[in-house]
Every structure is written in structure tokens, then in C-alpha cells.
Amino acid sequence: MKYRLIPPFIITFLLFLIPFFWFKPGEMDLGGDSSRLYFYDPMRYLISQALYATSNSGLGGESLGYFGIPFFLFLAGLKSILRSPTALIVFVHGVSLSVAFLSCYLIVKQLLTLSEVKKTRSSIIIAEISSLIAGLYYVFAPVSILGWNHMLLTDNRIFLNPLIFFLLLKYLLTWNIRYMLVVLGITFLFAPNFSFIGAPSFFSFFPLALLFLVLYVAYVLRKPLPLKGIVIGIALFFLLQAFHLVPQIESLLTPGSAAYSSVFSKEIKLDSGLGYFNALASGIKPSISLLGLPQMTPLNFFSFTFVVFPAVFILGFLWSKKKTMLLTGIFFLITLFFVTANITAIGLKFYGLLFHIPGFSMFRIFFGQWEHVYLFFYVLFLGQALLVILTRVKKWKKIFLICFITALLVVGAWRFINGKILQYAHWQSKNISAIVVMDPKYEEVLSYLRSLPVDGKILSLPLSDPGYQLLKGANNAALESPSTIAYLAGRNEFIGFVELVSFGPNFLQAVKTRNYVAIRDILSILNIRYIYYNEDPYIYDDNFPGQPYIYVRKFLPDTQREYKEFIKNLGVKEIKTIAGKYHIYELDDNSYLPHIYAARKTAYWNDDLINLHIPLAFYSDDKRIAFYDDSKILERYPDLFGNSFLNAKNMSSIFDFFKVKKLPRFVSPTVSQKLSSPIYPLIVLREKRDLGRFKIANDAFIDKSVYFIEKRINELAKWTREIPLLGNVKRIADLSKSWQDPKLWEFNKYGEYNSWEVTLVRYQQAVGTLIETLEKTTQSNYSILTNKVEMKSDLIKHKDKLRKAIREDSSRSLNEKKYLLNLVQEMFTDIFVKLNFSPPDYWRLPYEIDNVSLGSAYEVYLNKEDTEDFNLVDLDLIVDGKKLRSKTSEGDWIRFEDVAVKRKASLPILLTIKNFPNLTGQAGWSTPEKVNMEVAEQAERQMVQDEGPEKDLITLSINNDFLEDTSGLVKNIRKWMGDSIYTISFDYLTYNQNFSITLYEKGGSGKNRYIVDAFNEALQSKKWKRFNTVILSRSDAESAFLHVTKDQDDIPDQNSINNVKKIEIKNLSVIRVPNPRIVLKNIDRSKETLVPQIIFTKINKTKYKVAVRGAKDPYALVLSEKFNAKWKIFLPNGVNEAKTLKGLISRTLGKIISSILRAKNIVISSEANKESLTSYFNNDVVEGMHKNIFLDQSTFETFGQDPILDKTHLPVNGYANSWYIKPEDVQNKEDYELIIEMTSQKLFYVSLMISVAGLLLLVFLLLRSFIRK
Amino acid sequence: MKKILAKVSTSKKLKKIESFLKKNRNTVLALVTISIFVDIFFVKTNSDVVIFGILLLYGIFIKMFQIKSRRTFLLCLALLTAMFINFLFTGSSIPTEKAAVWFILFMALGIFQQWRENPAR
């Protein structure tokens, strides 16, 4: 009997040892996205991430990471014994592997033991072997091993699921409360798996597992359930988990919170949940799941051998009838459905319906989230089925099957066993390993950052896209992880573009244009005090061409050398260099806005505050301004604002050129009935009926009309040869006057459809009708111009399609082709005339300000930079019908005469501009290679530029056999800028030959430089024609040029000499359409108010004490943290006690705990700053000696107190918190103290007490169970 | 409803059909099996009507012919073989997935049947 313990013991021990061979000393596997930084420094991670309710990422905000406290403490304890992070990682890996195996082995053995009636020696051995194989399968299965190279915090489920299942099974079988208590202890220790972030793994496993256990005990074994114990267990579970569940549930039930949205919002449920599920579901294969293989992963050449497992299942059912196995089979099928989804259309539909349940969207990556549960029941099923088969088959077959399955598992998992599966390279890097040895010098960086005295945020450079940090290890690997500065140094930090949220695009644009003033303004308002810069080329230049810098690289410096230059120009002071490559810089006191300050002015900005540089530019001397952008605030508290800014919106219809209609466009229609078909008139009738069904001419109607219009073209293109010509029509427009659709009863006229000319007539008529409808209708969600732009694009395609069809029709004579091409050309000329498609008046820019709710005299400003191409005398600004003269230049702005504006719904403004500079310049046309087009072939070409009788007339003769970018002539455009609108116009004459004009844009940086054609149009004319177009340049375009090439002839010109073609161009003009910013600022006639002195001290990340001195006037107190209604202000010393029962209880509880803490002198804190006080703005703001106290006698001082100023707690500066404080709000005192506190943290303290009580109860019950024994 | 069921069960026509089916039990079951394999190997579209229609028919035959779960599991084994062959030669192609779905559904049916056959613990 004893010897039977040896094999499981050996396997467990071996599995525990395996991870110890995976890594060299110092190497760390930090899991998925290298996010398991707690293995590197669990204690620091605990302090930074788990103890407080606020996030260290970028702007801050609520972040509830309390669930990690017991686990991180446990890891910290382990690390103090094991000393190195490598040892800690392999130890945890070893425990996971061995406990997972052992638990599965024990579960299967338990199930087999209970289901076997006759217990012979051989049956016991077979049960033993089956259990061992089942256990091995659990740890070595393909789906199991695949997860090991991107482990996450909740992936302890690998061993937790079977371990807890086993202990609960034992409890239900034995009623021994100790099993239950151990389970509860485990859930407390591994709380992340029972928290909000562990919800998918928890809800996928435990409901099913518990149901299985209950059914197994009650209906299979027919044993009673220990209901009392279960109730006690559930109650204790909630007590133990209260410390993270209570704040989380409160947040979950708070409308507007991130947690609430993630569960209840329709967008999350349906778009992110169901939408994601639908996108994935079709790729999931039931066969792969049946074989126990991972989905969406390349398969091994021996994958087919895994068919042995479903075969074992079926043979198990064939040879045995046991309820346990049937029950397991049912759960196996349930989990198979959840992991696969793709089982019949009804099944898929049902699965989709589940996403309407709040919270079910957590299973959108269903095949990953249900994988472990499926694996678990697969294992239980396998163990039982294997026992049946091994009992039935002969000895040698038995041995073969055991050896085969074991070998299959070991061979399949060999890359896992030898650790290769964990040795992976970073995605999109140049094969840079993710298994990193931390640079010991970097620890000095973290330590230094922790010690920095000012409570400001840090900007990390090089900036990344997603907020990941790159760091070269001591080996040739790199750490690409969430920021170590935020997660281990506990500093609020911006390391990714995404963390800059709405400020990101403007920040990047400012960096790109090297607008250092704008950059400094953004840094100020975001409370960034320090810049950390890692100059190591290893982490930027070549090794990481993609992730994590894909987007930001378009704007930020391309190399580390350029980065250094950029930082130098930013005007920041270097305060520390470590190891020659880690630099820390500091912004000067004048640029820096402290974490908490009293605003010198309050201002209303009538637009989204995403580019704070603009309003801040009006306050060059002192940036302590509180900007509000919510019009409701202005309406509610009009007295609050010293200044009011009205940002005028450019209403020019030129922007309509670039609006893309969001309707899904149709696929080009297929045509099946020939024009000669007797049922063709019915098709015509159906089209009319379909269009007639639309009661209004909305976007769907427009789309449908264009669809039918395109059908005519497709008919002509498909049956080009078969459709006859009338041959006697001069212009389609002429025929259109006389031709009408035959009536349904006019059978004799049906044949009229079958001709080129009539089809073109029908086409032209349909287009004409649609243009008329567009001009009349207001039912479209888009402007007439947007609709016409889209229509023009369609018409050009139609024209090209027709020309191609005629050109390639070999059945027609040259004259017939010429005849047709002429008709087509003339028809489209008529259509484009009817479309009346000329660009809007770009020299006349209408602006509008909506909802002017504050009638006042306003100063009027026009941005200087936006109008630098023009002389001031060429600009006319008319506000509300009054023409204003320019007065002075003030910083970035040109100030015009002041204007008095009354309250009104809309204030019209008009800016007219004269004398636009033509960007084509004086330089002539040149050959492509002169502008570095990187052409592959050289063409013979000849260019003749003749100064014609008219000004600017240029005759271009192009002589070569090549087309497009290998030939032609080009002309550079000066001062081409990104994200700008340009109009291009000229007159041309091509003598009926085909030419093409293309606009190329150049841009990008470093290896991402590009030349792309931004616009192309065919040119053909018999007489002088005007060409007009409007272009929106790419955001990162830097230059552009026009390229004229000859286009393919519709009819080859036999008379052409030397294949030379001539185009004449005159009046070429390229103009950048300005979009100047116009701002109105009210004339501030309010008396100058005194700004109080603010002395603030950080107690911890969620609590600040603020001493206010000399507050005679109302002022706005700003806290530069992401706005959250849970930030509250309290008055100290019990001044504002809550008069409710809840308040009384909280107060009493707080006092009791405080007195205990005082009596025992208990203080839990991490290091505090020892440096001297820092002050700004002539001591108007002083930073105190910041602390990091988690718990002391003052922790509960605001318990049972009512917050003040809730009504004037408003979002400010586009993200931050502000309170508008009047003297009467603070008992008319001038000097007083305030406490700013995040209330989630208060709730956490209460729930922590509950959990501590639960833990004490658990220990007590556990001890009592031993004593009683 | 009960009356209608009673009428249906006593309907002479239905009894005739039942006795005909019982006489040709093996042929009928073979036809069901063949239709499943035809669906797997030759029909390229998925249809729930076909799947659940055949499944319902098979369910009726279980009741009519007193088919044991063993026979259903044997059919499962055949479906698994079909899936295996398809998987071997075509990977996770449409026929492979169809065979897998048939296998899963018949396995569910087999488990249901076996549960009703009062198995041991």
C-alpha cells in the first residue's frame, strides 16, 4: 500500500524541480506583457499597486488593486527567504505544476475509488495508473502548456482550481470542517483569483465545479450535504474577501464608474462583448477542442494522434455504465460548448444571447477563458474512461496504451519541459529575448525617483504607444513591461501615448513641430515635474522597429541622438544621470504647476479642453488658471468665472470635402439579364418600385440610386459587344429629350432598351434626377457637398470603366469606337456641369460660436501662426456684422478691436482673405528623378516649355513609352504641410489626348519615409477646361509635387509623330486654405482677487492635508488628478459631523480604532521624503514634507464626517478636480485646514477590518478543529 | 393535447407506418447513418434543419426500436473515425467540423440514453 505513494510523489517532485532548470541565475520570466513585476519586488509592487485606491498611471484616477495584498505579502515573505526573483519565479512555477498534478491525481483517484465496487489489487493499480495519467494530462496537455509563456496574475488558477475542487470534494465526503477552512485560507491568500480581475476564471470554473460536486454527492453517491458547513463557508468567504469585494462592488454599482460601464453599458455588452465574440467564433473549431488541442495555434505534425483521447471517452461509455462518468460526460459537454461555441447555428445564436447578461462580456475571448475549465473536466473524464479501458483490455494492450499516452504527453510537452516554450522574443522586435536579467543600475534609478521631493508626475522618454516601458537587461534581453516607475517606484508617470488621453494628439503634434512652448504648457497642466529619459539605443533605434513605438514614432524623434537634442531644447534641467544612460530632468518652478494649487483665475472655455496651450497662451505670466469647459457649469455658476473664452468654429463647407459617409457602401451590382431579354422591362419596373419605396430621400435612397446607376455601366461593360449601336446620335443629351421608358404594355418598344445610346440616356437621366434630388433634399445626414464629392468619385469610376470597355472591344470598328467615346465624353461633360462641382469660397471663411451665454464686451484674437502666409491688410474680420480692425500683436495672437456681444444662440463671424500665395512657385517643371521619385526605369523624355501669349502658359510635350511614375514631368509645391487643406486649379488643353495628373506626398521619418500618390485624375479636353480639386494632406506629410503623365490612348493616334503628346497648362495655382483660430475673450472687469497661500502635504496617495492661509476671496482649489466624484474635501477636527446613524457608527468605530492605534502607537508607512519644503509662485504654494502613511491614528479622522463643497466639485483643465471655495463654505475663516481624501480608500479601511476579523475567525476555527480532535 | 396524442398513437395509419419501420429497422437505421455521412462528406453547407431533423428522427427511432445507448456510442465511434480521417487529410476543414459536431450531438444523446438506462454508481 505504501509503495503506491511513491510514483505520485516522484512525479510531483520532478514536476516541482522542472522549472528550476528553465532559467539562468538572475533571469526572470515576468509573464504576459511582462506584467508580473511583483516577482521582481513584491513589497514595492504591493505599496505602489495594492494599498491605495488610485492609479499611478498618467493622470491617476480610481484603481482598486486591493485584491493583491495577501498574495503580494506572501510573495514578499517567500522572497525574503529565497532572496532572488529567479528563485521566487521558479519556486512558484514548481508549486503550480506539482500542486496542479497532485490535485488532479487525487481528484480522479477519489472518484475512481468511490465508483469501483469491487476493489481487487489489479483494479487498485489500474485506478492508480489512470489517476496518474489524468494528472499528467492536466499539466502536459497542449492547451495547458501554451499558457505558460504569458502568465498573468490570475493564472494561479492552474493549480487553484483542482486544489480547491479536491478539498471541497473531501469536505463534502467527510464533513471535516478543516478542508473547508483550508479552502477559505487559500482563497484569501490567492484573492486575485476571487476578485474583479479574476471574474472570468472564477465564474467559468466555480459555478460548474460546485454544481458538479453537489450533484455528485447528492445524486450519484446519495449522501447528505453538510448544509450548515456550506453556509458558514460562504459567509466566511465573503468576510475574508470583503477587503477587495466591498470597494469593488460599490464601484460596480456607481453609475459612470469604469467598473459600472464594463458590466452594464450597452457598448461593452454588445460591441466589445458580442461583437468581439462574433468576430472570433467562426474561427473556433469543435474538432480541435475535441482533440484537446489549442485553438488558433499552428498544429504539430502529430496532432492527429490526440484522437486517442475522444476514442477513449467513447470506449469508456461503450464498456461501462457509471453515473459518475455520465455526470462527468455531461459537464464535459457543457464546457465543450462554452469553449467552442461553434456547435450548430442555434448553439451559436444561444451563446450570442448570453452576451445580453450584464458581465457576460468578460467571456468574449471565450475559448481562452473556458479553456482551463474544459481541460479540468476533460481530465476527470479521461481518468474514468481510461480505468474502464485498462480494466477491459489485455495486458500487452494495457501496457501499450499507457506507454503511448504517456509518451504522447511527454513528447508533446517536451518544449515545455525543457523550458524552450518560455524563452520567447518580444513581438515585432529584432528577436530580443523577453527573459531578462534586471540591470542592477536601474534599481538606483527607481530608488532615486522614489526619493524625489516634489509630488509631481513623471514623463518617461522614449514615449511608447501603449504605456509599456523598454529596458535593456544585464543580459542581451529587454524588459518590455508596464512601467516599473509606476509599478515599483510608485510615481505617477506618463510613459505611453494612451496615458495622455485627450491631450495625446496635440502633444504629439507639438513635438512634431517642435513647439516647445506648447509642450511645456501641456507638461505644466498635466502636473509633470520630472522627465526620465533612457538614452540606450538598444531599446529604441533598431531593435524595436514596431511595437511599442509604431504610432508615436511618426511624431517623436526617430533616433536617440535626436531625442537628446529634443530634450535639450525643451529647456529642462538635468538633475541626475545614472550609469551614463538614465537621465532625470526637472522642469523649472515657473513652468511647473503643483499637484494642488489655488487658481489665480478661473476661466470658461467653450470647447473641449484638449489643447491647453491655446487658452494658456493668454496667461503667459502665471499659469495657475482653472479652465472649465462644461457649459452647464457656466449656466449654473456664472459668478465662478473670471474669464470666458469663446473659441469660434470654422463652418466652411470646404471641410465637407473630406467627410467620409459612414454608411456601408454596396458591392458593385452584378447584372444577369441582358438588355434584349423579354423580362428586362420587369427589372426596370422593379428598380423603379424599389426607389419608390423610399418616402424620403435619405442616405439609403442615395446609396440605392447610385447602385442602380452603376448597374447601367455594368450592363454596358458586360455585354459591350452584344449591345447594338443606333449610330445616329450626336449627343446623349439630345436623345434624352425625346426618349422615354416604354410603358409596360408597350411590348413593341421593349427592344429599345437594347442599345448603347439608350442605356447612356437612362444613365444620364438617372444621374440627373439624383443630382436634382441631392440639391433639393435635406434628408441626408451629410451635406450636399459631401454627397456630391462621393458621387463625383463614383462617376469618375464609371467613366473609366466605360472607356476601358470601349477601348478593349475588338469587335467594333475604329469609327464606332470614336463615336462611342465621343458620346461618353460629351455625356460626362454634361453630367459634371450639372453636378456643378466647384470648390467653396476658401477666401471667405464663415465661423460660428454657439450658445453665447455670457453677454459681455469681448477681446477678439486671431492666431498669428495660422495666418503667417498673409499680410494683415489682406484679412477682414467681421464679428456679428461688425468689421473689426486689427490693433496689436499679443504673443501668439493678433488682437482686433473689442466687440460687445449679447447673449445669443449663435454668433456669426466671417473672415475674408485676399491675395493667397501660390505655392507652385517660379521653378519650372522637371523630370521625376530630380525630385527623388526613386524611379526604377529611366525613360527618354523631352520637355519643352514655351512661354505662350497668355501668362503662365506652359506647353508640356512628353515623349516616351512609359507610363505613370517612370515618366512625365513634375513640379514641386512649396511649403506643403501635414493635415492642411489645399486647392489645386489650372486650365488645360490636351487636344483630345489622355493625360493624368497625380499629386504625390512625401513624409514620414527614418525608415518609415514614404512617397504616396494622394490624388489622381485623368485629363482630356478638346478645348480649354478648368481643373479644380481640394486635397487634405496626410498628417505627417512634409512636401508634395504634381506629376503630369500621358495616359493610355482610347484610340491610338496613328498620326502622332514620335509618340510625342502635348498638353497645355495655364493659371496653375496651389493654395493652402487657412483655418485660422479665432478666440473671443471677455473683458475681465472683476476686481483682482487675492489668491490664498496653499501648503499641502501628502499623507498617502489618497489623502492630502491642505493648509490655507489668507483666503479672503473665493477661489478654485485644483487637485491635478483625474476627476472623480469620490475625491472629497473634509474639515478636520470633527467640525462637520454627519448627523446620521451611519455617521454615528462610522465616527464611533473610527474613534475606537484610532484610540487603539494611538495606545499601541501603531503606524504602517513606507519611506517619507526627508528633503526640505519646496515652494512656488513666491511661496503661494508650498509642498510640505510628504509622507506615505498607510495606517496611523489619523487614518480614521474623517470617519463620520460630512464632506463639504460637493456641489462645486467640478472637472477642470480637461481632466482634474477643482473645488470652488467661498469664505462662507469654511465658516468665514481666512486661515484653515482641509483634508482631501478619496472615499474609496475609506471604504477599503472598513472592509479591511471585516476581512481581518474574518481571518481571525478562520484561524480560531482552524485551531479549534485541531484542539477538538 | 393528451387527446390528440392518444388519437395519434391509436391512429391506424401511424401504426402501419410503425410496423413497416419496425420490420425494416436495420434499413431505416442504415439510412439515417448514411444520411449523416452524406451530410459530412458531400454537403458543403451547414443546416440546423438537417442536423436536428435527423437527430429528432433518431430520437424517435430510439423510442420506437428500443435502441440502447451502446448503439449510439458505436455511431459516435464511427463519427469519430470520420472526423479523424478528415482531420488527417484535410485538417480542420468543413467535413471535419461537421463530423465533430455530429459526434458531439450523438455523444450527448448517448449520455442521455445511458442515464435513463439506470447505470451503477
Please give a structural write-up.
The complex is a heterodimer of chains A (1269) and B (121). Chain A contains 35 helices and 41 strands. In chain A, the strands form 10 sheets. Chain A has a 7-stranded mixed sheet with strand order 12-11-13-30-16-20-19. A 6-stranded mixed sheet of chain A has the order 34-41-32-31-37-36. Chain A has 1269 residues and is α+β, with helices and mostly antiparallel strands. Among the domains of chain A are: 455-592, no CATH class; 603-650 and 856-911, no CATH class; 658-835; 928-1076, Galactose-binding domain-like (Jelly Rolls), CATH 2.60.120; 1086-1230, no CATH class. In chain A, helix 4 runs parallel beside helix 7 and helix 14 (308-319) crosses helix 18. By secondary structure, chain B is mainly α. Chain B has one domain (2-116). In chain B, helix 3 runs antiparallel to helix 6 and helix 5 (69-90) runs antiparallel to helix 6. Chain B is globular, with a radius of gyration of 16 Å. The N and C termini of chain B lie far apart (37 Å). In chain B, 28% of the residues are buried. The model of chain B has no long low-confidence stretch (mean pLDDT 88). Chains A and B meet through helix 13, helix 14 and helix 15 of A and helix 4, helix 5 and helix 6 of B.
Keywords:
heterodimer; A: 1269 residues; alpha+beta; seven-stranded mixed sheet; six-stranded mixed sheet; 41 strands; globular; B: 121 residues; mainly alpha; 84% helix; 0% strand
Oligomer: heterodimer
| N-C termini distance of chain B | 37 Å
Structural class of chain A: alpha+beta
Strands across the major sheet of chain A, in which order?
A: 12-11-13-30-16-20-19
Question: What is this structure's SSE topology?
Answer:
The complex is a heterodimer of chains A (1269) and B (121).
Chain A: H1 6-17, E1 27-28, H2 42-50, H3 69-82, H4 85-115, H5 121-140, H6 142-146, H7 157-174, H8 177-189, H9 199-220, H10 227-252, H11 258-264, H12 266-281, H13 286-290, H14 308-319, H15 323-340, H16 345-354, H17 366-369, H18 371-392, H19 395-412, H20 414-417, E2 436-437, H21 440-451, E3 457-464, E4 468-472, E5 478-482, H22 484-487, E6 493-496, H23 504-512, H24 516-525, E7 528-534, H25 560-570, E8 573-578, E9 582-586, E10 596-598, E11 601-605, H26 613-616, E12 625-628, H27 631-636, E13 643-647, E14 649-650, H28 680-692, H29 699-718, H30 732-738, H31 756-776, H32 784-807, H33 814-835, E15 844-852, E16 856-863, E17 875-879, E18 882-884, E19 886-890, E20 893-901, E21 904-913, E22 954-959, E23 969-973, E24 981-989, E25 995-1003, E26 1010-1019, E27 1025-1032, E28 1037-1046, E29 1060-1073, E30 1078-1082, E31 1093-1100, E32 1103-1109, E33 1115-1119, E34 1127-1130, H34 1141-1160, E35 1164-1165, E36 1174-1176, E37 1181-1183, E38 1189-1191, E39 1209-1212, E40 1216-1221, E41 1232-1238, H35 1239-1268
Parallel strand pairs in A: 3-6, 3-7, 11-12, 11-13, 31-37
Antiparallel strand pairs in A: 1-2, 4-5, 7-9, 8-9, 10-33, 13-30, 14-15, 15-21, 16-20, 16-30, 17-18, 17-21, 19-20, 22-29, 23-28, 24-27, 24-29, 25-26, 25-28, 31-32, 32-41, 33-40, 34-41, 35-38, 36-37, 39-40
Chain B: H1 2-10, H2 12-23, H3 25-42, H4 48-65, H5 69-90, H6 94-116
Helix pairs in contact in B: 3-4, 3-6, 5-6
